[in-house]
Specification:
Shape: rod-shaped
Structural class: alpha+beta
Radius of gyration: 41 Å
Number of strands: 9
Order of helices and strands: EEHHEEHHHEHHEEEEHH
Number of domains: 2
Strand content: 15-25%
Length: 251
């Protein structure tokens, strides 16, 4: 089918240019605005059947720009019929044929496949963008976690890894500190010996024991406390590999 008047397609509907139709009809009324204003009151609704185009057509010879409207194919059919002319009849038959092809099963299937393909591509792009965003956010998220976990102190277990005495794990570290009379067991908790209590912070942590919620004391060391403890243990003859840089991350 030859294209008498240019048709614009999207996923939902077909439209055409009111000015293009007017020109095909032989420019009735002499002026486009007079012609369009004459017929747009025939029950047509702006933003539903037609809308003013943001882009305006400039005449090749220069001069004043000419306005245009985007109209639906249904409106184009009615405008063509209202002309009561041979060209109006041809235009209407042309629009009816275009509409038939648009709504044919093959065309509908092809349009659905195009929509599906665009949806898939959009999802792939979203997935790519999400992965990229996550990769960019990961260092910030880690920094945020470090900030949120930082209390300016570390637990005794964390201190065991930071001070890093050869052959002494976390459990042995508690026994070592008890042996050196740095900390002592009081009930179910460890507390600093009175001589060294200024180097530790003691916090109460709730712990469930069966159906009973108990508060247990937990020891913490700040940076100064870590420095002191590492030096103290070196003086006592322990082989210390103090990872102060790890402690700094926790501060």
């Amino acid at each position: 089918m030859n294209e008498l008047i240019k048709i614009n397609f999207n996923d939902e509907r077909q439209t055409t240019s009111a000015r293009s139709l007017w020109e095909f009809l032989g420019q009735p009324y002499g002026r486009f605005n007079e012609w369009f204003d004459q017929f747009k009151g025939y029950g047509f609704v702006e933003s539903v059947d037609f809308r003013s185009l943001a882009e305006i057509t400039v005449k090749p010879q220069g001069g004043r720009p000419s306005a245009d409207y985007e109209i639906t194919l249904d409106m184009a059919k009615e405008l063509s019929m209202l002309q009561r002319s041979e060209k109006g009849k041809r235009a209407r038959e042309y629009f009816i044929e275009v509409d038939k092809q648009w709504n044919s099963p093959i065309t509908i299937m092809a349009r659905a496949q195009q929509i599906a393909q665009r949806t898939i591509e959009s999802l792939r792009q979203d997935k790519t963008n999400l992965a990229l965003a996550i990769s960019k956010m990961a260092p910030k998220a880690q920094g945020y976690d470090n900030l949120m976990n930082a209390t300016g102190t570390v637990t005794i277990k964390e201190a065991a890894a930071i001070i890093n005495i050869k052959g002494v794990g976390q459990n042995k570290f508690f026994k070592l500190l008890t042996f050196e009379e740095i900390i002592q067991t009081v009930g179910n908790s460890y507390l600093p010996c009175s001589e060294f209590k200024d180097h530790f912070a003691v916090k109460q942590n709730p712990i469930w024991k069966g159906d009973v919620l108990e508060n247990r004391s937990q020891l913490y060391l700040d940076m100064a406390g870590l420095d002191w403890l590492a030096k103290f243990l070196v003086k006592r003859g322990y082989e210390v590999n103090y990872k102060r840089s790890e402690a700094l991350v926790m501060q």
